[in-house]
Amino acid sequence: MSGSRTFTMIKPDAVLNGHMGAIIQDITNAGFKIIAMKYTRLSADRAGEFYAVHKERPFYADLVSYMSSGNIVAAVLEKENAVLAFRELIGATDPQKAAEGTIRKKYAASISANAIHGSDSDENAVIEAGFFFSQLEMFV
Ligand code: CMP
Question: Which CATH number do you get for residue 36?
Answer without folding.
Answer: 3.30.70.141
